[in-house]
From TrEMBL:
Pfam families reported for this sequence: TusA (PF01206)
Native organism taxonomy: Bacteria, Bacillati, Bacillota, Bacilli, Bacillales
Organism superkingdom: Bacteria
Record flagged with keyword Repeat: no
UniProt protein name: TusA-related sulfurtransferase
Domain UPF0033: 7-31
Any one GO molecular-function label of the UniProt entry: transferase activity
Record keywords: Transferase
Coiled-coil stretches noted in the UniProt entry, renumbered to this chain: none
Length: 75
């Protein structure tokens, strides 16, 4: 999946992955995709809820080598 921007939020604890995601997605145009990499296990539920409440779309999420990856399409 092609991303307009990749955000490295690995090693950050809640709420920093959300704070950084919010700032990063503000720089994108509507319809562009932000790829987020995080290691905080709470990020999955946090980012899912945040994307929905903000009018964005969580396209996909995966986990590989304890790194959670999210693709969020800006609404």
């Amino acid at each position: 999946m092609e991303s307009a921007k990749v955000l490295d939020a690995k090693g950050l604890a809640c709420p920093m992955p959300i704070v950084k995601t919010k700032k990063a997605i503000a720089d994108l145009n509507s319809g562009e995709v932000l790829e987020v990499h995080a290691t905080d296990k709470g990020a999955k539920s946090d980012l899912t809820a945040w994307a929905k409440s903000g009018g964005h779309e969580l396209l996909k999420d995966t986990e590989e080598n304890e790194v959670l990856k999210f693709w969020i399409k800006k609404g």
